[in-house]
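Final report, Chapter 2: Outcomes

The project's central promise was a pipeline that accepts a single protein chain and returns its three-dimensional structure in a standardized token representation, suitable for archiving and comparison. That pipeline is now operational. To close this chapter, we reproduce one record exactly as it appears in the project archive, with the input sequence first and the structure output second.
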Amino acid sequence: MADTDHLDPAARAVVDHLVALGVDHELLACDPALADTAAFCAAYGVAPEDSANTIVVAGKADPPVWAACVVLATTRLDVNSAVRRRLGVKKASFASAEETAALTSMMIGGVTAFGLPASVPLWVDAAVMARPRIVLGGGSRSWKVRCPPAALLAAGAEVVEGLALAVG
């Protein structure tokens, strides 16, 4: 387990949430310059199929509606079909870095399924649940979390078949 004495506030909130959930997890230190998934996997020897991205999506409505979606790094979130339908909107798009930070208090490259606002639904692609362990953002670009996918269920995730598409 990494030294957690020097966590930034976003990462601290994530760790506190994981501890409160009582889920098995490992905190991994990460060079912030290598926090983006492809760079992280290459630098730290993590297989992309064991890395999952938490992506915030904005549904175009008044007021906007939001969801956080967890998909494997080897897939692509189906924003224009699966996510849009689930949000019940005519248009949906990836939330901007600014929107994501305002909603989650997390920066792109560190966004995770843990410590999200209760008002944001958490959807996880079914393929994520088939992995023995996954690596997710840790709340900031300096940390990652390795845990079993069941930890997502403890965080209130709903498993969605077909949330992500194969990258082709």
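Archive annotation: The chain has one domain: 9-166.
This record, like all others produced under the grant, will remain available to the consortium after the project formally closes.
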